[in-house]
UniProtKB/TrEMBL annotation:
<dbReference type="Pfam" id="PF01380">
    <property type="entry name" value="SIS"/>
</dbReference>
<feature type="domain" description="SIS">
    <location>
        <begin position="19"/>
        <end position="163"/>
    </location>
</feature>
<dbReference type="GO" id="GO:0097367">
    <property type="term" value="F:carbohydrate derivative binding"/>
</dbReference>
<dbReference type="InterPro" id="IPR035466">
    <property type="entry name" value="GlmS/AgaS_SIS"/>
</dbReference>
<keyword id="KW-0677">Repeat</keyword>
<protein>
    <submittedName>
        <fullName>Fructoselysine-6-P-deglycase FrlB-like protein</fullName>
    </submittedName>
</protein>
<dbReference type="InterPro" id="IPR035490">
    <property type="entry name" value="GlmS/FrlB_SIS"/>
</dbReference>
<dbReference type="GO" id="GO:1901135">
    <property type="term" value="P:carbohydrate derivative metabolic process"/>
</dbReference>
<dbReference type="InterPro" id="IPR046348">
    <property type="entry name" value="SIS_dom_sf"/>
</dbReference>
<dbReference type="InterPro" id="IPR001347">
    <property type="entry name" value="SIS_dom"/>
</dbReference>
Length: 293
């Protein structure tokens, strides 16, 4: 078993721990009414997109998501939350350094022995969700669960769906598809983006991701027999039929969207295996992006 397989299989247990941890860390996480930015790089940026949509949708306050390198310094925020598995990512550390003493910051990380611990005002450590693999799975979903639980939006049913996602077989014919498109709405747009990234990292697969309604404004033209479209959450009326009319494979997300992401992670590993690739050794990637000064 690869590292990434071992780590993705542990996710429901990690989610349970993060949900319990959320209450203890409530004071260092954003409070209702704060104007918040959530930042990250790569996978963490896509989790930031999901968190921002969830928080604002729950009526807790204006919330934006940015790649750490694209943070708009002229905007006023009460609180910035940085997601960083390694605690060493250059863009995140640079941003926290610039914000220190100006805007309150909280970092969610997996490693307490890294520079992020001194640069952020507050930290939440998810050491049990750290990973050996380059390809992120459990840290990302556990950090999202921590913040989802902080909003009161996590339930035991999510963990049960996660176990179902690990046990149930993937849809027939999916692994053999030549192209994959992932769709989301609201907070699940970030999950769709992350599913596409997993497929590119682990399996070098041709993948795209869109807000579901935007898919009909051009991208649906890529859909054809031997290609798949996967919806995270409830699909817009009529979309499933439109995809089927193209001859493409339509995958309906029937589980909690976070559990659907677990299924997409499994797909990435399965496609990598079918193509003779090692998902623990993604091309041109390292576990943390540390740029030379």
């Amino acid at each position: 078993m690869t590292h990434v397989e071992d780590e993705l299989n542990s996710q429901p247990a990690c989610w349970r721990r993060a949900a319990a941890q959320a209450a203890a860390h409530g004071p260092v996480l954003p409070v209702p009414g704060e104007r918040v930015a959530v930042v990250g790089c790569g996978t963490s940026y896509f989790m930031a997109q999901a968190v921002a949509a969830l928080r604002e949708g729950a009526g807790r306050g204006e919330t934006d998501a940015f790649a750490a390198s694209e943070f708009p310094h002229r905007r006023a925020y009460d609180h910035v939350v940085a997601l960083t598995r390694s605690g060493t990512t250059t863009e995140v550390l640079d941003l926290l350094g610039r914000l220190k003493g100006r805007i309150r910051t909280t970092a969610v990380t997996a490693d307490p022995a890294t520079p992020v611990m001194s640069l952020a005002d507050e930290t939440v450590v998810l050491a049990y969700a750290d990973e050996r693999s380059v390809v992120q799975t459990r840290f990302a979903t556990t950090a999202l669960t921590l913040l989802r639980a902080h909003l009161g939006l996590h339930t035991a049913a999510v963990e049960e769906d996660g176990r179902t996602a690990l046990a149930a077989p993937l849809p027939e014919g999916l692994v053999d598809c030549a192209q994959f498109t992932f769709l989301g709405r609201g907070w699940t747009v970030g999950l769709a983006n992350e599913a596409g990234l997993k497929m590119r990292e682990a399996a070098l697969a041709w993948t795209e991701a869109y807000p579901a309604m935007e898919y009909r404004h051009g991208p649906i033209s890529i859909t054809a027999p031997g290609r798949a479209t996967w919806m995270f959450g409830a699909a817009p009326d009529g979309l499933a039929g439109q995809v089927r009319d193209t001859g493409g494979l339509w995958i309906e997300g029937t589980l909690d969207p976070l559990a659907e992401l677990v299924r997409a992670q499994r797909l990435a590993v399965a496609v990598a295996a079918a193509r003779g690739l090692d998902p623990d050794r993604p091309r041109h990637l390292t576990r943390s992006v540390v740029l030379a000064p």
